[in-house]
Write a structure and sequence with these properties.
This protein is of the alpha/beta class. It folds into 2 domains: 2-87, GMP Synthetase, Chain A, domain 3 (2-Layer Sandwich), CATH 3.30.300; 107-362, 3-Layer(aba) Sandwich (Rossmann fold). It is 34% helix and 21% strand. It has an 8-stranded mixed β-sheet, sandwiched between helices. The protein has a 4-stranded mixed β-sheet with strand order 1-4-5-6, with helices on one face. It has a two-stranded antiparallel sheet with strand order 2-3. Strand 2 and strand 3 (29-30) form a beta hairpin. Helix 5 runs parallel beside helix 6 (227-235) and helix 7 (251-264) runs parallel beside helix 8.
């Protein structure tokens, strides 16, 4: 940092003091102590700096920029303020094993207690939404016995059967699925120990960082509380889990079981997403709650978790999955795509908060 020559302007200390009054609402600390203000330059009455957020998908991006600009403009002598918004995703770590995945800063698991709730659809669109926010993202299909991510990203099952399994970039996301090496119709009949070994290989023996370190690796877990989620928690430092469920009242029971499992594994649960929450008529705009309403929200409230959002029941989502083009990519301005973009912001924010909490606990 250096003071420019020429017309007398404000002192850098006064600028930093003003910026220290701005608090990150998620981390509950001021932006100076968090190290978010960098490359400060004061030339006469002109002030310029970089504002480095903890995630490019921050839901408070515009609000924090506004607050910072207002704080600097309040300093006597300031004539103009130039803010360059940037992001640096911090790596998630824990003070004890499991060992980190090389080239991956944060692992976010997407889980459900039963099948048929649209978990994989959520995982794919969450990954693409984070990538659209500017993050470097990977997607791992951890459903080793029933992989369907290849279809959802437009790749054929068995497309790497002759070359070997490596990440493939689809819609800005580095994707891996055991389905890439399984020819169509060939079942994967594995028992517990083999599943654990398979999970370990997918995490630790693939070049996730071949094109640069990943900010987030989204893992689509198989439904239930069996070998794959248990192995995943033992093999990698999961930053947090997102639980996907549906609106029925039984959602409370299903969500409770999933949450209880991850709590026993000492894996944080970020919150609950209600999929197929309602049907919005494309012709008249009327909202119909086909499967009831409020089950997932009530579950989140009773379990003390964040309710991350409602994803509507939309025929275009189904069509997009079948065609191999995620709705966030195919119809980015649609209401359902905007819901996924908002959920991505909330998940990224929770990841940042959890990272700071883990750092503080390790001190």
């Amino acid at each position: 940092m250096k003071q420019g020559e020429g017309k007398q302007g404000p002192d850098e200390k006064a600028i930093l003091a003003a910026l220290s009054t701005v608090e990150d609402p998620e981390l509950h600390r001021d932006i100076i102590s968090l190290g978010m203000i960098r490359d400060l330059q004061v030339t006469g009455g002109k002030v310029a700096f970089r504002f480095v957020l903890t995630t490019p998908a921050s839901p408070m991006h515009n609000e924090l920029q506004r607050r910072a600009e207002e704080a600097v403009r309040s300093v006597p002598g300031v004539e103009s303020v130039e803010v360059k918004m940037d992001a640096d995703v911090r790596a998630h770590s824990r003070p004890a094993p499991p060992r980190p995945v090389e080239g991956v800063r944060n692992i976010i698991a997407v889980a459900s207690n039963k099948g048929g709730v649209g978990k994989s659809t959520v995982a794919v669109n969450l990954a693409v939404a984070l990538a659209k926010h500017g993050a470097r993202v990977g997607l791992l299909d951890a459903d080793l016995t029933g992989p369907n991510i290849p279809t959802m990203v437009g790749l054929e099952h068995g497309c790497q059967a002759d070359t070997g399994l490596v990440p493939v970039t689809c819609y800005g996301v580095r994707v891996v699925s055991i389905g890439f090496i399984l020819r169509p119709g060939l079942p994967m009949i594995w028992r517990g120990p083999l599943i654990g070994r398979g999970v370990s290989q997918l995490l630790h023996e693939l070049p996730w960082a071949a094109d640069g370190e990943l900010d987030y690796l989204i893992i689509d877990l198989p439904p239930g509380t069996s070998d794959a989620p248990l192995s995943m928690a033992q093999e990698a430092p999961i930053a947090g889990v997102v639980i996907v469920t549906t609106p029925q009242s039984v959602s409370l029971e299903d969500a409770t079981k999933a949450v209880a499992m991850f709590e026993k594994l000492n894996v944080p649960v970020f919150g609950i997403i209600e999929n197929m929450s309602y049907f919005l008529c494309p012709h008249c705009g009327q909202r119909t709650e086909v499967f009831g309403h409020g089950g997932a929200h009530d579950a989140a409230e009773k379990l003390g978790l964040d309710f991350l959002g409602e994803v509507p029941l939309d025929a275009q989502v189904r069509a997009s999955s079948d065609e191999g083009v995620p709705i966030v990519e195919r119809e980015p301005d649609s209401p359902v795509a905007q819901v996924f973009m908002l959920i991505a912001e909330r998940v990224a924010a929770r990841t940042s908060v959890q990272g700071f909490s883990d750092e503080k606990a390790a001190e």
